[in-house]
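sry for the spam today, last one i promise. struct tokens for design, 329 residues
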């Protein structure tokens, strides 16, 4: 099969190479799928750079989530059969950026029938992250104000839709007028272009000085620091990631004085510690998708030959929504 391989670490455009590789074979508890679609995720970028918490042995094929058609299954796999359309995580070293991929049965779920391949492939990591962060960690309530950073990106766009589905007033922060249009189309009640406006001032004004009840922050660094200036009494700041490049140092005395909580979210741990909750989350996301409350924003559908370019543009921060490798593109 053809697949993108990373044999050395660096920027995606420099280290991803399209090559002919041996077809994967399923081990116990695994399955092989024909890849239908696989979106670029920031963990793919970080793995290429050698900066992710998971550091696969070289060479490997990136593509941490995907939608595929089951080709074969290993020993002990009984819940799926060849021909099933499924979504879930790619099992390294055979991730989703190839014609075939390997998956673990324990983290594989039926693909929602109401979403096409590219949309379905994008429902797993970003939306599960958003659901666990907003509902399990922050207990977002109807009527609360939710501030979402990078609201036009992959995880941010999911948080905007999930926040609206939960009945929150959503403030989306983006960089640039085109991304502002996207955030508004996703349903954000208020959109702030950080290039021209101060989100701290906007949040304080719209809430009468109270601030945001929940902050969803996949950026970190200065974005986190500024968010502490507009967090409400008993507010919750969700630490999702550090796409801005700097891991902030939280001032715990400030959290004490202003009476807010700082909540970390490592969604991958739920697969290890509480897999039943992951299955519950998937069922809830499918319900929301079937009702039309959520739908992954797929901005680009790329053929296999253009995947490295898409991953690099994600790394550079110039993409909007989900950039997806789609086998039929």
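last one done:
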């Amino acid at each position: 099969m053809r697949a993108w391989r990373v044999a050395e670490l660096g920027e995606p455009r420099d280290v991803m190479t399209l090559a002919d590789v041996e077809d994967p074979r399923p081990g116990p508890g695994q399955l092989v799928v024909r890849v239908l679609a696989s979106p670029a995720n920031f963990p793919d970028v970080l793995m290429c750079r050698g900066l992710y918490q998971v550091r696969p042995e070289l060479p490997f094929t990136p593509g941490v989530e995907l939608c595929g058609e089951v080709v074969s299954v290993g020993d002990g796999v009984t819940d799926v059969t060849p021909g099933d359309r499924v979504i879930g995580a790619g099992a390294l070293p055979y991730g989703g950026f190839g014609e075939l991929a390997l998956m673990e049965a324990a983290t594989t779920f039926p693909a929602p029938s109401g979403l096409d391949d590219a949309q379905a492939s994008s429902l797993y990591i970003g939306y599960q992250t958003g659901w666990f962060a907003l509902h399990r960690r922050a207990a977002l309530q109807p009527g609360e104000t939710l501030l979402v950073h990078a609201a036009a990106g992959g995880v941010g766009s999911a948080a905007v839709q999930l926040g609206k589905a939960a009945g929150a007033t959503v403030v989306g922060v983006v960089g640039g007028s085109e991304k502002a249009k996207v955030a508004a189309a996703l349903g954000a009640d208020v959109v702030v272009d950080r290039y021209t406006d101060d989100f701290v001032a906007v949040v304080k004004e719209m809430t009468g000085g109270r601030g945001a009840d929940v902050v969803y922050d996949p950026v970190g660094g200065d974005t986190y620091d500024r968010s502490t200036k507009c967090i409400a009494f008993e507010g919750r700041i969700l630490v999702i990631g550090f796409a801005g490049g700097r891991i902030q140092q939280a001032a715990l005395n400030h959290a004490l004085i202003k009476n807010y909580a700082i909540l970390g979210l490592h969604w991958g741990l739920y697969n290890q510690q509480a897999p039943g909750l992951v299955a519950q989350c998937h069922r809830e996301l499918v319900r929301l998708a079937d009702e039309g409350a959520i739908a992954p924003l797929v901005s680009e559908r790329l053929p296999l030959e253009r995947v490295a370019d898409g991953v690099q543009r994600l790394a550079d921060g110039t993409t909007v929504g989900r950039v997806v490798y789609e086998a039929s593109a």
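The mean pLDDT is 95. ok im logging off now
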